[in-house]
Amino acid sequence: MNVGIIGGGQLARMLALAGYPLGLRFVVLDPAPDACAAQLCDHLQAAYDDPAALEELARRCDVITYEFENVSLTGVDKIAEVTAVYPSSRSLAVSRDRLREKTLFRELDIPTPQFVAIDSFADLENAPKLLGWPFLLKTRRFGYDGKGQYLLYNAGDLQPAWQALASQSLIGESFVPFQREISILAARRKNGETAFYPLSENQHQNGILHLSRCRPDDPQTKPAENLIQRLLETLDYVGVMALELFEVHGKLLANEMAPRVHNSGHWTIEGAETSQFENHLRAILDLPLGATEPVNYSAMVNFIGALPELADLLEQPGIHCHAYSKALRPGRKVGHATVRAPTEAALEARLNHLLKLLP
Hints:
Elements: E1 2-6, H1 10-19, E2 25-29, E3 42-44, H2 51-60, E4 63-66, H3 73-80, E5 84-85, H4 89-95, H5 98-107, E6 115-118, H6 121-131, E7 135-139, E8 149-152, H7 158-165, E9 170-174, E10 180-188, E11 194-196, E12 199-205, E13 208-215, H8 221-234, E14 239-248, E15 251-258, H9 268-271, H10 276-284, E16 297-304, H11 310-315, E17 319-323, E18 333-341, H12 344-357
Parallel strand pairs: 1-2, 1-4, 2-3, 4-5
Antiparallel strand pairs: 6-9, 7-8, 7-9, 10-11, 10-12, 10-14, 12-13, 13-16, 14-15, 16-18, 17-18
Helix pairs in contact: 1-10, 2-3
C-alpha cells in the first residue's frame, strides 16, 4: 500500500516512521531538495501545484494526504479524480482561510473570539468598535507559528499594521485574555468511527509552540470533544484533526483547527497507546482506529533553532529524542523530545531537567 504526502517536512517524516511497521510505503511531494522526509520516502521534488508531479503522485499512490494547509486546492481536487485524498478539499478550504474557519465555527455554535473581515483601511479603523483594544490583525492565509499577525494597542498602531499586512486578505480578531491554551485531537475514519485523545495543555514562546502536556481527566475534556465532534461530522472528516482552544474563566473559545496531525500531539508517539501519526494513517486507509489512552504521564518540548547535546538528553530516563535532520536556523522547529514518567511529580522533574538542557 502506497501513501502519498503533499509536503516533506517533519510531520510527513513522522507519518512514515509510524507507517513502516504497518507495511506501508510513502511518496512525498516537496520542492525542497533537502526535505527531511526524503530520507525515508520516495521524493518527488517539484512545486506543490505542479500538474505533472501531482499526476505522478496520484498514479503511484493508493491514498494521498498532506502535512500542512497551504497546498493547492485545485491540485487536490484534480488528484482526487484519480485517487482518494483525505482529509477532503472542503476541510482544507475551510482551515486555510481564517475568515471561512471562524464563520464555520459561528455556524456550528462553536464559541470563538469576535472577528471581522478587513478589506480596507476604513474596515481596520472601524474594527475597534466591535473588537475593542487591543485586537489582532491577521492574514487570512499562510499564518503559522505566529507569522502574519500584528497586535494593535491603540489608534497609533493602525497605519503600521496596515502597511505590514495589507498586501494580503485580512481578518481582525479580539484579543483573548485566556487562562490556558489547550488543544484536542481526534481521529475519524470513513465509517464515522471516532477516537479522541486526552487534552494537551500548551505553552507558546514568540508564537511558536514550546511545551505541551497531556492532561488526562481534564474537566474541559468533554466540552472540547463536543466542539470538535461538530466539525468532524459537518465536514464528514477523515483523518486526524486538531482544534486549538482558549480557556477563559472556565469556558472554551475556538482559536483554529488543523486538518492534519499536529505539533501539540507529538507526545502521543511515546505517551499514548497509538500515536496520532499511526491513527491518521489508519483513518485514511479505513482501518480500525487504535486506542488513544495515555501511557503514564507525558509531555513534549520543541527544539527551536538548535538541538541539545544528544548524550545529555539520553542520560535522563523517560526522555525520547526526535531530531528532524533539518538545517539549524533561528525560529525553526528542528526536533522535539517527548517525556514520560509514572507520576505527575516525576514528569515535572524530568521536564525541568530537560528545559535546562535547551540551548
